[in-house]
Amino acid sequence: MKQKLILWFENYLFYPNSFQKLISFLLLPLSFIYIIVILSKRLFTKKNDFSLPIISVGNLIVGGSGKTPITIKLASNYKDIFIILRGYGRESKGLFLVSQNGNILVDVKTSGDEAMLLAKSLKNASVIVSEDRVLGINKAKELGAKIIFLDDAFSKYSIKKFDILLKAKNEPENSFCIPSGAYREPKYFYKKADLILKEGIDFKRVVTIKNAIDDSLLNSSKKTLLTAISKPKRLLEFLGKDTKMIAFADHHNFTKEELLNILKENKDSKIITTLKDFVKIKEFEKEIDLSDFYLMHLEIEFTNESILKTINGYIKEFE
Quick one: DSSP state of residue 63? Predict the structure, then answer.
């Protein structure tokens, strides 16, 4: 029932049917109030200059558009960098140094799944989680940061930064802001970004599916997708529509009982999950057999050669 509700809400935001469109129109007055608040914040908030390059990777719509893999791709080109994010789904509060120069300092419950994936993927970087991004920036400067990447910080108007906005390959069918649609900020705010990256034009995803333990490639036609990410149906593009999907809410923390039941009920199928999900599943390696899982390794390829040149131009302004 819970999985059906998640998928219903996803369809409401991105691909509404007639009934869902009616609900969307009825909620427009709330969306209008929401937009007024957003515009007021943008107009009256004073920007703080931290005197070092700060690059925000974000999007305008609810849910994922590839922010984490794009951040990994960009950050891998630099040294002495810090990545700061809120750490959605973590069980902790406040500021934590998740990793320093690739050395993991906390567990995934403290960091959250996205922060742990960033920390494990980038040996040249340090990762901080903090609800207060300004506090995180000051901590990064104290620790010697030369470049800072902010995850999902387009709406942090108090920070002077270089804003990158990602555009999904398939955008929502309506242009309304929440709660009537999927946009967290008005669609015309794309014009306020310093750089827009459109999937399918500026970058593409390359997915390889390998066993979690021995890196053997997937060779089975019967597949079950297990994931707790936003818009999980987008993964079926790489797996096929005949794939069974078990979807939990974004950032859901799996329990041992859930995983054991899923493995038991799908013993004749190959269980496929994302790297973001697997950093949480791996916590149960003593209780479950990790070789039962196959991982979707996602690589980003830039098809627009000017992307890094544009970002490097911004960074050189601080030299």
Answer: S
